[in-house]
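Explain this fold:

***
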Amino acid sequence: MLKSKNVSAEAIVMGRRRTKILTTLGPATDDDATMRALLLAGADLVRINFSHGDLDGIRERVDRVRRVSKSIEKDVGIMGDLQGPKIRINNFRQGPIRLEVGAKFALDNSLDKNAGDETQVSTTYAALTDDVKAGDILLLDDGQIVLEVDGVSGQRIDTTVRVGGRLSDKKGINRMGGGLSANALTEKDREDIKIAAELKFDYVAVSFPRDAEDIRLARSLISGAGGRAGIIAKIERAEAVTNITEIMDASDAVMVARGDLAVEIGDAELPAVQKQILHLARERNKVAIVATQMMESMISSPVPTRAEVMDVANAMMDGTDAVMLSAETAVGEYPVKTVEAMARVCLGAEKQRFTRISKHRLDARFEEVDEAIAMAVMYTANHFEVKAIIALTESGSTALWMSRIRSGIPIFALTRHEETRRRVTLYRGVYPVAFDVTRDPAHTMQMAATTLLDMGHVKDGDNVIITRGALTGVTGGTNTMKILTIDSRYRVAPPDKDPD
């Protein structure tokens, strides 16, 4: 019998949670026991932040994820998050300073990088003086410090402090309304893309893209390095919101990265922008992730705040595919409890009936046969007594299209390709299952149904919908859907051989 590497244990225990959980790795997860507990608690994918750690540390974390996930027979996706052009101040000579409201303070790139004091500091971005003018508002340390530009002269920007406070080394700089011209992909990012390709990351997230060209460049660099990772566009610049449609069309997924985005567009604008991005992603058949401070208090608390519970639930009800944890799991005191809490909140929100009802694309015309089949499957599943959907897939695209439709019916992506199984871990309501469609083409559908029956996902008398292509093992060829009723008397077991 085929040994399946899938979510079966989690799906049964967690009630087949549809919203996916993306967890950031860090010192708090750097042992096998914690990693195992994290994955069993519900982590579907992991994030490796290229802003922190060295190459040896990254390799070690990738090895740990793959080793531990294999031991528990669970496919886990890996996302590499590029640092991007994070514009920062440099260092203060005698440690942190305090800025008072009304004080004069300069950003002066003629200074040594360690010469900052209470009146001035240098920055990591030489072109900052070209991007700002008198009257602009600069936001330091995620908006904790607010400076109004008085004037620009040579390499020096003179400002007046409008909101003061403590300021320490390496804090970020944003311009309210956006407009900083730094390229999205730095030399460090280009080197990190090569690492992501070498280590076969499933996704690469591009930080601070301004337009679709930034995404296309990243895709070209990944392909050139021999990688096949999907591209996630992190929406964190004001310009990215303006160019959101073209960025989305060039990407495989988008992330609402609410930290820098809120600083650039203003926190009052953020909720509506988040909802708009999530709606547009579903409309354009793209995957969406909501990130930043989702359960921030759990860095040091074993329980989330009610506001955090509402935040996670609202993102899920607005249609996000995944919710992301950052410092909560990377350096927090309770990484496993945090994942458990997030999974619990998602499950609670998913009980609401409207989260399983969709009118998405009812009036649309479809460009591809496999997309039309996927939409027909979901319409049928939502209007007929169906317990599971089985997508026999090579690339995972059929499962992706199905996952755009709200439904409470699990979609099992059966594929022989480990790369595809890891990629679909990001798709809402999709669960990967190892299955080789080339073993016995004459009985593929019956074998697929038998696989789910033996895993305990379906039982005798259940109706399932199965999709497949007429040509076995061909990408993009799905052209058939069939409704089967499970009957254990007609089990068809595949040959006793694992897929490649």
Q: What stands out?
A: The first helix runs from residue 8 to 13. The radius of gyration is 24 Å. Residues 437 and 444 are 6 Å apart (CA to CA). DSSP finds 17 helices and 21 strands in the chain.
